[in-house]
Amino acid sequence: MKHYIFLWVALFTCLVLILPNADAASSTLGEIKKKGVLTVCMDVRNLPYSNADPELPGLNVEIAQLLAEELGVELELHWLNTLRDSLLADMLNGHCDCVIGIPIEERAMSESIQLGKRVDFSKPYYGTGYVLVKRKSNQQSPKTLEDIKSETIGAEGGSIASDVLRQQGYNRRVYGSQIAVLNALQKGQIAYGCVWANAGWLIEKGSRIQQTEQVSTVYPELEIVDGYTPEPRFRWNVSIAFSKDTPERKTRDFQDAVNKIIEEKWSAEKLKELCEKYHLPYFAPFQEDEQK
């Protein structure tokens, strides 16, 4: 099972190793319009975010389809396996025009990556992060972590959630994976799980998310805590990534067009509907001053 935030961190690490001296190959709106195609780098098998099966494409693929429609062009997906390849590295090599669904998270980046020199980001279009999961028999619906300060909270070892829970003095129990956290929660070994936002998909579809025929609920006793919003240090805004313009090609028309679409066309209702289709919680973009 792919843990979204850590794949993203590994992806940036790949940029340093693969492209130490490469120049960003930025796309212009005019070039995209002329060829009539928007090319987006996408993970071939990372549900609920992306999937090569058109019958179950994933949230990021559907966002890419929306973007292409608003630009008035066709969508072409450049498929990669992020267990081996880097989406952003391929974009910087000119294989696609943008990457959909990149969390903006400074705490997970090394200064050596120098993103400010390599990649630009759109306006955020929704927020994501770590959510709380509980057993349905548990009638409590905590609004904050402080509400469950004395409860046992499970988290994946090595995750940002695990580190922050430890730092803030919560009664944390560490497990080897998100699936292990959900299993422990289902068995009643912990009171809550603090897991990545794709937990809703895992609860509904199970850990073998590559098999679209598996539709039975694997964790029928569990649910995401309704009304809980990821708190600062547990949340990130999500954006679209572009190759930053080189000194020889200074243009932001493509990025500006995308920002206008996000601002004027992508309503909270539309994005929430797409998220719910893939059992993902929707949060409006978090304010920057709250994230700091």
Radius of gyration: 19 Å
Largest beta-sheet characterization: 10 strands, mixed
CATH architecture of the largest domain: 3-Layer(aba) Sandwich
- At the first level of CATH, the class of the largest domain is Alpha Beta
- The helix count comes to 11
Mean pLDDT: 85
Gross morphology: elongated
Counted beta strands: 12
Low-confidence stretches: 1-24, 108-114, 209-215
Number of domains: 2
Residue share in helices?
Answer: 25-40%
Structural class: alpha/beta
Record keyword descriptors for this entry.
292 residues; alpha/beta; D-Maltodextrin-Binding Protein, domain 2; 2 domains; ten-stranded mixed β-sheet; two-stranded antiparallel sheet; 11 helices; disordered N terminus
Give a structural overview.
It is a single chain. The chain has helices at 4-18, 29-35, 59-71, 87-92, 115-118, 160-167, 178-186, 199-205, 253-264, 268-277, 288-291, and strands spanning 37-43, 45-46, 50-51, 74-80, 98-104, 119-121, 126-135, 152-156, 171-175, 192-196, 222-224, 235-243. The chain is α/β, with parallel strands linked by helices and 292 residues long. It has 2 domains: 4-127 and 236-291, Periplasmic binding protein-like II (D-Maltodextrin-Binding Protein, domain 2), CATH 3.40.190.10; 130-224, Periplasmic binding protein-like II (D-Maltodextrin-Binding Protein, domain 2, 3-Layer(aba) Sandwich). The strands form 2 sheets. Strands 1, 4, 5, 6, 7, 8, 9, 10, 11 and 12 form a 10-stranded mixed beta sheet that branches. The longest helix has 15 residues, at 4-18.
